[in-house]
Every structure is written in C-alpha cells, then in structure tokens.
Design brief:
The chain has a domain of 234 residues. 66% of the residues lie in helices and 5% in strands. The protein has 14 helices and 4 strands. The strands form 2 sheets. Strands 1-2 form a two-stranded antiparallel ribbon. A two-stranded antiparallel sheet has the order 3-4. Helix 2 runs antiparallel to helix 5, helix 8 crosses helix 9 and helix 10 runs antiparallel to helix 11. The longest helix has 29 residues. It is globular.
C-alpha cells in the first residue's frame, strides 16, 4: 500500500494560508477598550438628557455585539444589564416609599407614616408623582449606563491579556484590579460549564431550586480554577519582579501631587459648574505628573512579560473615540441647552445634532476597529 507524501512547498503554502486566515483580523489591545469604555462612561455620567443617555448605551452595546470574541466571558454584558436594571428598580422603589420628590401629577398615594422629630425631612409614604418617578429613573439611568460601560470593557478586553500588559510601576495594583474585574466573566464561564455538565447528566432543575443547586458548584468551580491559575503562574515565575533602590521622596511627592491634581481636577470638572477654566489645567498637570512619576518608578522595577500585545493605529483609534466622546459630552454639558432635561415641569427632551454626533463617535469602534479572529479568546 503506497503512501502519498505532500510536497514541502505545498505544506508551507497551506500553513501560510491558515496563518493568514487566522490573522485576517486581530484583537485590539485590552487597555484600549478600557480607555474607550471610560470615555463613554464619562459621557454617560454627564448625559442628563434621557435621549442622549439611551443613544450612548445603544452605541456601547453595538460596539460589544460587533467586536466581542466567542469566549464565554465575552457574554458578561447581559449580567451587567441585569445589574443596571436592578439599580434602576431599587431607586424607583426608594422613591416610591421614602422619596422626597412629591410635587407634580399624582399617580397614586400611599399611607403616610408619622416619624419622630429626629427623622425630620424623611417621609414614609405619601403621594407618588410622575415627575418624581421620571427624574429618579433618569438619574438612576446614568449610574446604570456607567455599569454597562464597565461591562462592555469586561466583554471586549480579555482580563488575562490586560494583566500581562500593565506597566511595571503598578504591577501589583493592576494584578489585584484585574482579578477583581474578572469576577463576573469567570462566574459566567463557570455557570455555563456547570449547566452544560448538568444537562449532559440529565439533572436540570427549573425554577429557584435549580438556581440554588447551581450556586455551590459554580463557586467551587471558580475557586478551583483561580487556585489552579495562581499555582501555574507561580510555578512559571509569572510576574517576577526585581527592585533596586527604594522609593525616592521626590518621586513619592510627585505621585502625591499627581493624585491630588487628578482627584480635585476630575471632581471640579464633573461636579462644579463653570470650573472648567481651572479644572482642566489642574487635571492635565495631575495626569502629566502621574505619567512622569510612574515612568520613573517603573525604571527600577522589571516584570516578566510574555508576548506583549502590539499598540498601533487601531488602539489609537479606539482610545481616540473614547476621548472624543468624553470631550463632546463635556462641551455639550456647558453649551447645549438641550442637555438640561427638566422634570419639574415635565417636558419632552430635545435631541440636537451634536448629541447624535457624540453617540456616533462612541459607536465608531464597532465599525472601524479590526474584527477579532474567529478563534480569539
């Protein structure tokens, strides 16, 4: 029986074609997705207009649906949507029971409970108005939108890839941060694994009993995988650091100045009307001092890194869209009267062309960012 051997040239060409098909698209750097999500989150927190808020959330969801991979943790956006809905529901319940906004068109009234004198200003029950519910829903929607932006970053950025691409200066902090933000994707993956195993055994239980029976295996699976990952990383020397001289006091002072500048600049920019003239320079000084201090701190600290992800034009595009979205929202908050949505009296919100442009810029990575490979994780 004769055996036909392929020519070496054919094997090489076939392997090159396979590699080319896999690299037709490439995954964007995880921290670029986080930069885009944070920019969209800034715009969401400033969007007091409900129409702009809905458009921004729709743009973020569009990008996730277009550019997420097929990894199990990429489906975690649904979990964040459920958490956002829970936030809005809790705020509405508190508004109905103990809310302070009782003016406007009354929907229904609850029995009012008298409270002692030391609880002055708090009312249990009373009239429930349309204006109070709408204002509470819009205000809670901004927090819900911020949660969805964080969920979008979790769905698009692989936490393991993000961990190996952190600067050396804050490797330990970033390790703890990445572990914290990867809880939701890990739980989603554990739930899928446990449910798949139960379906194969024919032991699926519907309702609350089925949910309770899944909780313990899910937590056990997540803990076992975390311990196995930690043991594997330690045995391979992942994240090994070496330090030389100690922290210089001038470098420490620079980092403190950077922290104060970023904190007070951000607070003044987002919370104090008309403070942009001095808040923006303070924020820029804090960011520049922080970048310089972290660069100097990282010069004397080296960490092992395996195959760092490239940072090129797609990453600049994604981060630029996030920064442009935040900048447009800050500009609209100070110049566009349509951003001021009025619930007292209740009026229909207006939508301007700059608002549409802001949502469109937030959605651009869903069209312009490279499509991830089919086997990307």
């Amino acid at each position: 029986m004769s055996r036909v051997l392929a020519r070496p040239e054919v094997v090489i060409l076939a392997d090159a074609a396979l590699q080319g098909a896999r690299l037709a698209g490439r995954t964007v750097h995880p921290w670029a997705w986080w930069g885009w999500a944070l920019g969209a989150g800034v715009a969401v927190t400033l969007a007091s207009n409900p129409l702009l808020l809905v458009l921004l959330i729709a743009a973020v969801t569009f990008v996730v649906l277009q550019r997420r991979t097929k990894a199990p943790w990429a489906r975690s956006l649904t979990l964040y949507y459920a958490l956002a809905g829970l936030v809005i529901a809790v705020r509405l319940v508190f508004q109905i029971l103990i809310g302070g906004l009782r003016e406007g068109t009354v929907l229904f009234s609850l029995p009012e409970i008298a409270l002692p004198s030391w609880a002055a200003g708090i009312r249990l029950g009373g009239p429930v108005t349309v204006e109070g519910l709408v204002y509470t829903a819009v205000d809670a929607g901004r927090l819900a939108g911020l949660l969805i932006c964080i969920g979008a970053a979790n769905a698009l950025a692989n936490p393991k890839r993000a961990l190996r691409n952190v600067p050396a200066a804050f490797h330990q902090i970033a390790t703890a941060l990445v572990i914290a933000i990867s809880v939701a994707p890990q739980l989603v993956e554990s739930v899928l694994r446990v449910r798949r195993a139960r379906r194969l055994r024919g032991g699926v239980r519907p309702g609350v009993k089925g949910l309770i029976s899944v909780i313990v295996p899910v937590l056990e699976d997540a803990i076992d995988r975390s311990l196995a990952l930690a043991a594997g990383m330690e045995s391979r020397g992942f994240g090994r650091t070496r330090t030389g001289r100690g922290l210089d006091w001038r470098l420490g002072l620079t980092l403190v100045v950077a922290m104060l500048g970023v904190t007070f600049g951000t607070f003044a920019l987002l919370g104090l009307p008309g403070a942009g003239s001095w808040a923006v320079p303070l924020l820029l000084i804090g960011l520049a001092a922080g970048a310089f201090g972290l660069h100097r701190a990282g010069d004397d600290l080296a960490t092992s890194r395996y195959r760092p992800d490239p940072w090129g034009a797609p990453e600049y595009l994604v981060v630029g869209c996030g920064l442009a979205t935040a900048a447009l929202a800050i500009w609209l908050a100070s110049t566009d009267p349509a951003m001021a949505f009025g619930a007292f009296p209740l009026t229909w919100p207006e939508l301007s062309w700059p608002m549409l442009a802001t949502a469109a810029v937030a959605a651009l990575p869903g069209l312009l960012a490279p499509e991830p490979p089919k086997d990307a994780a």
